Amino acid sequence: HPPSFFSPHPPGYNRRMFRCKRSGLVRRLWQSRVAAGHGQEADDWSDLAASLNELKSLTHWLLKRLKEKPLEVLAQAVESSGGLHTACVYMAKNEVRLGRHTLAPQILLCRLFRWPDLKHLFELKRLYSCESFSRSTDNATVCCNPYHFSRLCGPDSPPPPYSRFSTNDEEKPLECTVSYSETEATSSPNITPGDFSAEQHLMFSLLVL
Question: Which residues pair with residue 98 across a beta bridge?
Answer without folding.
Answer: 101
